[in-house]
Automatic annotation (TrEMBL):
ATP binds at Q11, P12, S13, G20, N21, G149, D150, D151, I188, K197, M198, S199, K200, S201. It comes from Microbacterium koreense. GO terms for molecular function: tryptophan-tRNA ligase activity. This is Tryptophan--tRNA ligase. Belongs to the class-I aminoacyl-tRNA synthetase family.
Amino acid sequence: MTKPRLYSGMQPSADSLQVGNYIGALMQWRDLQEAYDAYFSVVDLHALTQPNDPAELREKTRRTAAQYIAAGIEPSKSTLYVQSHVPAHAQLAWVLSTITGFGEAGRMTQFKDKSARYGSDQTSVGLFTYPVLMAADILLYQADIVPVGDDQKQHVELTRDLAERFNGRFGEAFRVPVPMIQQDTARIYDLQNPTSKMSKSAESDAGVLWLLDDPTVSAKKIMRAVTDSDGTVRFDRQAKPGVSNLLVIYAALTGRQIPSIEDEYAGRGYGDFKKGLAEVVVEEFGPVRQRALELLDDPAELDRVLAANAARAEAVADKTLADVYDKVGL
Ligand code: ADP
Ligand code: NA
């Protein structure tokens, strides 16, 4: 029996991924790769919609790929590749852009948010058509499911609309994918600002736990995490966002239930609790960091793995693209 297809990706927007990317995406990908025929992309074409230094972008792309592997995405089990290595992404995006309404694209809330932040001089047409490229990413692989954060749900809806529209107009070329929305419990917040999402593009990284940081740096950040004056280790997102966030990280990394962690630290202070979490983080990320650094130490081998995986991705993507070209008369 063939396994259902899965597609997901991340932008190479920093040298290191952060614990939210790990818990919210990579840990899930690692589990899902068993039951699905999974395609995991480092979406460097998408990253071009933000200002980038070319050498830095290339380095971030390699580092992101190394962290996928170090976190347990197996290049022999999943197809783990760099988006720009497969030209069909850009080619299909062009075809899809010709069946996307201008007004339809203009309704994307992420574009509205980002363009408001960038201002009209910094807002490119590429940022506007970003969701169309994302639709191409997904549809090329005939993905059944697409694990995404809440913020990407609208883009997957657009992807579904474009697939149905194309199939209706030109004949069946695409499977219509279903989003798999990340659970709320997998949402990690900034340690210094526990009501805003931890992000690799945060303005200050004082509250960001980096996968590739020296473990002693992560431990210090945990010890300095914002809590409250109540003094009890108890989950309450509204009243105790800082402590709740630490509990979520603790639970996710150990596979334990939150009440069992609350019990363990009942009657003890935040200092003990933070020390416990720091140990968990060091134990989990220590080996991941080690493995990522080893991979980055052997660029030829990493390139070989990425090239082999890109070839596998390309074989699937080119088949879809050839069918699409044929159907539209190219
Ligand atoms: P970032 O904000 O770090 O740049 P992206 O927006 O590139 O992250 O998201 C990459 C993946 O990581 C997505 O699947 C997203 O849902 C997940 N992710 C990012 N930040 C978090 C977080 N704080 N908590 C949980 N998941 C997250
Ligand atoms: Na981002």
